[in-house]
Design a protein that fits this description.
Blueprint lengths: L2 H4 L4 H5 L2 E3 L12 E3 L7 E3 L1 E5 L10 H7 L4 E5 L25 H6 L6 E5 L16 E6 L2 E6 H11 L3 E3 L12 H23 L9 E6 L8 H9 L7 E4 L17 E3 L6 H9 L4 E3 L2 H7 L2 E3 L20 E3 L19 H5 L2 H9 L3 H28 L2 H11 L35 H15 L10 H6 L8
Parallel strand pairs: 4-5, 4-13, 5-6, 6-9, 9-10, 10-11, 11-12, 12-13
Antiparallel strand pairs: 1-2, 2-3, 7-8, 14-15
Helix pairs in contact: 5-6, 9-12, 11-12
Length: 476
Amino acid sequence: MGSETLSQMNPEEMTNPFSLLQPAPSVLAPRLGKFAVPGRRPIQTPHYIAITSRGSVPHLAHDVLRDHTAIGSLYFGLEDFLEKLPHEVPPIYNVPRAPHESALRKFVSLPDDILLLLGARRVPPIVCPPPNTDKSIAILTSVGFRQLEAEQYVDAVQKLRPDVVVGLADMVLGQKPGVKRREKMVDRTHAYTRDATRQLYGAEESDLKTLYFAPVLPLENTQQTLYFGELRDELRPHISGLALYESASLSIVPEELGDLPRLTFSEPKTPQVVLRDISLGADLLTIPFIGAMSDGGIALDFVFPPKQSEGDDGLKPKPLGIDLWSPSHATDLSPLVEGCACYTCTKHHRAYLRHLLSAKEMLAWTLLQIHNNHVMDRFFAGVRASIADGTFDEAVKAFERVYASSLPKVTGQGPRLRGYQVHASGPSEPRRNPRAYGRLDDAAEKFAEAQASGAIPDADAGAEELEERGFAKEAR
C-alpha cells in the first residue's frame, strides 16, 4: 500500500492507529499492543524504534537494512538535515514530490512500508549552549548551533510529511532545572503543542496525515495538570500518542490518555532498564546502546526469557555481550553467539570479526549492527510472548539473576566519530577525540626551549659554530 492509498484513508483510522491486544491497566503495567499506520508495516508492541544518523541507521546501507534486518520503523532528527542559518533552504525541502508524497521518504530513499518518525533533536540529544525561547528551541546542525522556531518546525512537518511527528518540548539538558525554570518548561511545551496542532490539523482543508505525539516533560504530575487537562479535553482529537523523556513519567499519564501509545526517550543503559520501562507500560522505545555497543566492537549476547539451565549453578552473572577486541577471539572460529540465526552468525566467525576490527574495516561494524539488532528483535519477541502468557514478572526476575547488571566496557577503538558526536553531552565530559593539532604545538614548544638553551644553533650560525656543536663537519 503506497502513499496514494494512504492519502485516501479515513481520518479516524489515521488518528487512532494503536490498539491494545488484551485488557491491561492503563498505567504501570506491561501491555501488548499493535501500532498499525495504514500503508506501513505494523509494529507489535512493546518494540523499539531504530535510531538514524544523517538519514540512515549507522553502518547499515538501505539494501542491508532491507535484506538482513527486521527493522520496520526509523526515528529521524530534523537537526540532521538543517543548515546553520535559518534563511538557508536545506536540500531536503527541494525534493521533487507530489502533494501527497513524503519529502522525507523520498530524500532518504526508503520503501513505503517503513514507518518514519520525525523529531526536532537527535537521540540521544547533544547539550546546546544557546537557551530555548518562548518561540524556539536550540538545536545543533551539521555546521553549528542555531534556533529552530516553532513555526519553522510546523513548516518542516508540512513539507516533509513523516508518518509520526514528535512535538517540540522545552527540555533542559545537562542540568537540573529550578522551580521557575520548570514552570517555564510546562508553559512553553503547552504553547508549542497547542499552536502546532492548530496549525497542522485545525484548517478544514488540511490533508496532512502525519500523526502527532505530544511530549510529556520529565516533571511531576502536579506541575503539568493544566497541560494534561488540555490534552485530554481540547487537543485529544489531534493527539495520536505520547512522547516521554524519562521512565518515571509513565506513572503520571492520566487514565483518560491511557489508550495512547507511549514512545519513550529515556535512553536506557541496559536491557534490565528496558524491561523496567516495559513493566511501567512503555510501548515504543528508543535504545541508543544498540549502536553504541556496535561501535565499541561488542556483540550483544542475551535472550529473554533466559534459558532455564542458566543461572542455577551459582556462578557469577553472564555477560550481556562479547568484546570482540579481546585477543582470545583471534583464532576462534565459532559464531558470535551459538544458535543465533542472524546473517553475521550464520556466515562469519569471531576471528573474522576481530580481524575486521583490527584492520578498521567498515564491514566489522556493519556485521555487528546486523547481529545486535537481531538480538534486540529476539529480545522483544520474548518480552511480548511472556506478557501474553502471564510470565513476564517471573521472567524479569530470572533475567536479572542470570545476566550482569551492566553492559561490557568498551576496550577498543570504534569507528570515526561523526561531527555532532564530538561535542560534549554533559558537563565535565572528557574529550572524545585526542587533540590532532596539539602535537605540533608541543613540538614547537620543545624546539624553542632547546634553542633558548643553546642546544640548537641559530639559523645564522657559521660552519665553525656548527662543527663545534657537533651538527656538521667542515669539508677540507
